[in-house]
Amino acid sequence: MSDFDFSSRRLHSNVKIDGEYDIIVCGAGPAGSVVAGRLAENSTLRVLLIEAGGTDDVPEVMDPAQWPLNLGSERDWGFLAEPNSSLNGRSIPLSMGKCLGGGSSINVMVWARGHKNDWEDFAAEAGDSAWGYESVLDIYRRIESWQGLGDANRRGTGGPVHVQPASDPPPVARAMLDAARGLGIPVFDSPNGEMMEGRGGAALTDLIIRNGRRSSIFRCYVAPRLGQRNLTVLTHALVSRLLFDGSTVIGVEVIERGQLRRYMAGLEVVLSLGAINTPKLLMQSGIGPEDELRQHDIRIVQNLPGVGQNHQDHVSFGCIFEFSERQPVCDGGSQATLYWKSDDNLRLPDLLHCQVQFPVPSLETASAGVPAHGWTMFAGLAHPKSRGALKLSGVNAHDPIRIEANTLSHPDDLRDALKSIEMCRDLGNSRAFSGLVTREALPGKLGIDEMKEFARNAAVTYWHQSCTAKMGRDPMSVVDGRLKVHGIEKLRIADASIMPHVTSGNTMAPCVVIGERAADMIKVAHDV
Ligand SMILES: Cc1cc2nc3c(=O)[nH]c(=O)nc-3n(C[C@H](O)[C@H](O)[C@H](O)COP(=O)(O)OP(=O)(O)OC[C@H]3O[C@@H](n4cnc5c(N)ncnc54)[C@H](O)[C@@H]3O)c2cc1C
Fold first, then answer.
1. ∠ at Cα 477 (384, 200), nearest 5°?
2. Which of 146, 215, 441, 494 registers the highest number of CB atoms within 10 A of its CB?
């Protein structure tokens, strides 16, 4: 039976309505903040933004250096992947932001816009050139308030997101660029321009830090509008179910401080709950793979086999080098990056390295001994071939989701991991670091089998979970090029889950583009 009584145009009489809005945006992460902020520009639109977490006004969020303290805190969903035989049975932690700003409030603040061909691929999947690179460059120009060297074709200076180059990079960051040069890899002024149109290169990072404080996407788009009468932001409010009239979404059910509430949306509901919770909510509401829903006796509203499939993430392996003496940590400690196509014929960079100015072993590699003072070169894969899947453990909002991340399950990923680790070792052991580094602590020179073992034990995520409700036109796609859920009315998805494949770098900036695109499409669809 529908939740809606069409004759009275109300929910059934025993169901209380707690509020009516034009647009309900679920999740105040990067994409959700953009959608809510942009739509609230129109004072005639009543916008509700619902967030499960709480405030971002704490030192661990606002002080860039404190970001690691958010891991495992109340601002982290604290997801854990299922035990994985490709990782020696390890369950790797998959943190995700849970507060105003979502990931952009707990992440490393790196601004990385994706490779030109990521966007061309999105356009091809969507069948819509508006997702292509030229169009996305326009969007980035209006998003950014870029503080670095001018690049008028690619960078904007009047947008809401303050992006600045790494400040005061210490010698270890500069040395990494010199080391890259030594390997024949070009060095660029910024990783967000020409570098991401070709084979790649190395650069100091761009960061969302302003006057020494994190400038999250919530702070950029929503915080300035908090006094507006047409924008309501709920915190500590868990969206638990979509409400339907047939296959039309009419509102959401929310658990707020133990109470069940219902909010109705006149125009649309937008899901921006991130790549784990968006598919979870879809499935628990009856939209997803038929078999999975039947197993849990969930009434099927729409059979969409792709919901929760195609889980992608960037895997990386921490190579650690010991400093000759303690070195400063600047900004969030990640100020140098490298993207590279190991073969020039590749369409996209396959290697994605991030330097961190302190030692970061995995739980398992820590036992090999970690230097008191050192730095990490994360040897990452920009486009791993392993694919994961999400499974329900129950029908209630508090039932945990099972994440089969399947990291390193594709044999090519282990092969490429070794290639990436060897490149990090070449960089870290190069002359560029002489005087700074006394030795390579991890992994050291190993035989091929030992190195595979190291990779399985060292594998961690860059926290770029994505692609679990992908955009496209094939049977496994979940949304179309306008981000509308196939077969359902008045429901869009705007977050990392819609990516057809993970972008070549960190995923926050692409989520801002996704939010901008969603807001534009909603404005056009409803002429508002
Ligand atoms: C530790 C860490 C470091 C990272 N470092 C970087 C980096 O330096 N640069 C970069 O580009 N990317 C980084 N990322 C990744 C980046 O932050 C994410 O890709 C990005 O935040 C994803 O945005 P999103 O819009 O998909 O949603 P999310 O950021 O996942 O936000 C979703 C929001 O929805 C809320 N929500 C979820 N379920 C519910 C529910 N049922 N009801 C109500 N609200 C709900 C969440 O609490 C959250 O606020 C990092 C991520 C982490 C966790």
1. 35
2. 494
Q: Which of ligand 1's atoms lies nearest the C-alpha of 67?
A: 1
Stated pTM of the model = 0.97
Q: Is the CB of 238 under 6 A from ligand 1?
A: yes
Pocket test for ligand 1, best of 96, 272, 390 (most atoms within 8 A of CB): 96
Name the DSSP letter for residue 95.
-
Indicate which residues carry an active-site annotation.
464
Q: Which residue has the tokens 């490149």?
A: 423
Query: What kind of fold does domain 167-204+314-462 have according to CATH?
Result: Cholesterol Oxidase; domain 2 (3.30.410)
The predicted structure's pLDDT at residue 42: 98
Residue 463 near ligand 1, beta carbon < 6 Å: yes
How many angstroms separate the Cα of 184 from the Cα of each of 170, 187, 199, 419?
Answer: 22, 9, 12, 16
What are the per-10-residue average pLDDT scores of the chain (528 residues)?
54 72 98 98 98 98 98 98 98 98 98 98 98 98 97 96 96 97 98 98 98 98 97 98 97 96 98 99 98 98 98 98 95 97 97 97 92 96 98 98 98 98 97 96 97 98 98 98 98 99 98 99 98
Structural contact between residues 379 and 420, judged by C-beta atoms closer than 8 angstroms: yes
CB distance 269 to ligand 1 below 6 Å: no
Domain ranges of the chain: 4-57+216-310+467-498, 167-204+314-462
Alpha-carbon distance of 133 to 117, in angstroms, equals 7
Which CATH superfamily is 4-57+216-310+467-498 part of? FAD/NAD(P)-binding domain (3.50.50.60)
Q: Do domains 4-57+216-310+467-498 and 167-204+314-462 have the same CATH topology?
A: no
Q: Is 97 close to ligand 1, i.e. is its CB under 6 Å away? A: yes
Q: What is the CA(219)–ligand 1 centre distance, in A? A: 14
**Contact indicator for 317, 378 with CB cutoff of 8 Å:** yes
Minimum CA distance residue for ligand 1 atom 27: 274
- pLDDT tens for each residue of 284-335: 999 999 999 999 999 999 999 999 999 999 999 999 999 999 999 999 999 9
